[in-house]
Amino acid sequence: MNKAFLVALREFKENIQTKTFWIGILAFPVILTLAIMVPMWLEKTKDIRQYAVIDQSGWLLEAVEEKAASPDLEKVFRATVDKYRKGGEDFDALPDVLKQMAPVLENLEDEQLKLFASAIAAFSGPEGTAGPVDMELPEAGRDAILQFHGAIQSWWQSLPPKEAAKYGSGLAKSRYARVEVDPSTRDLQAELNARIAGGDLFAYFVIGKDPLTDSEGNKYVSNNLTDRDLKEWFSRHATEVVRSRRIDKAGIDPDIAKKIREWLNFEEKKISKTGEEEEVAAVDKVRQWAPVGFVYLLWISVFTITQMLLTNTVEEKSNKIIEVLLSSVSPIQLMAGKICGIALTGLTMVISWIVFFFAGIKLFPYFLDEMPKTDFSVIARDPIYIASFLAYFIMGYLLLAAILVGIGSVCNSLKEAQNLMTPVTIILIIPLVSMVPIGKDPNGTLAKVMSFIPPFTPFVMMNRAAGPPSVLEYLLTTILLILSIGVAFWAAAKIFRIGILMTGKPPRLLEILKWVRAPVGHILPRQKE
Question: Is the whole model's pTM more than 0.90, yes or no?
Fold first, then answer.
């Protein structure tokens, strides 16, 4: 054991002193951060969609633009409140009208702020009249609408799309820009078709003469068949406006119509450990899917570190370093030392990733335009997830390490090792493709059956942590996994003691199986080709 410990210490020191080790530690959080942030940044760099509208109805376009302005203004007002509370240069850079409205906006509740934005967008009465001011707003909110609606609408209409992005995330104003057209132009649709063909226009809409009756004459023309966001955005608002007008035309009370179209909601509850009903919070829903993220991290960790063991074994064998080491230690001591040394390296790497994970959850919200209401750090601090992750990392690593060290010992080059690794990789893909079904039903038949298949056990049991499985299942699967690790090490030791000094063409599977069955100390002659 002392010699095995010295081999392990040597492996650990050699690995942590290399640049690739530190690159490996930093690469994962960097790649994860880029995978999250880059799509968000690229979405912001997407070209503004220039579109035109031929409105044959004479009223729907104006109503749609009024409807579309409401959610945008709501986001602008929320961003104004956040900047007002923080103060500083961000707030000072806001337009005067927003700065003047900030104290009033701060005192509005979420639903009231939504009503306020809708009232500002819809206000068309002369200054000093009540117009469409919603009476559910407090007096200060109604006064602010009367006082500021003209200035806000003027500012909003003249705001360039590129500038709109500064006032909130995901504003339609920053993504879509309507191009004015002259309805009296002869053959206007042919002109717009030419502009689309030339790339000057992204798309155009044609609104039929009577959208309240049917969709006859409505068209959406574009050569881009993949980006459907503009069509869906415009269609959604147009549908809401037309639906509202149809209700008015039919003489149906708007409150009754709203009640008819209202979803039948079921209040979500869960059963606590004491057997009582509890409210389901947003963090509970996120927590249910959190194990999927841990499974990804577990899979990457185990696969990356066992690959390191395989590569190390093959390189030392091909460079004849193994022969020097075997002059001082036995093959079994060497194998045990290499596995333990790489395990220490892997644990160092994984612990570093967990630290980055904690830091990322804490810092990531600050890169968003709006802070999320759910505290995701609660998930990262959950002792069940962290303890399960570390336990299954160690057991998963040991099981796969025994398999790969056996493969590495019979190969003379990385090319040969990669060929033998293909079946192992295919087997390890299965827990990944089954993550979502198991996440949806962590205590279902599929999850329970796969939990008792040793190569899948670490990943599946980690995936079921939100279930969670019964104590008996934890106990039985752990015992089975430990026994499988023991059998894998026993077989790997028999293969390693023969294969590590063998050169030439790799042995066939049948020959390797004979090594496993052979008594210790008995070396079988190689079969002739």
Answer: no
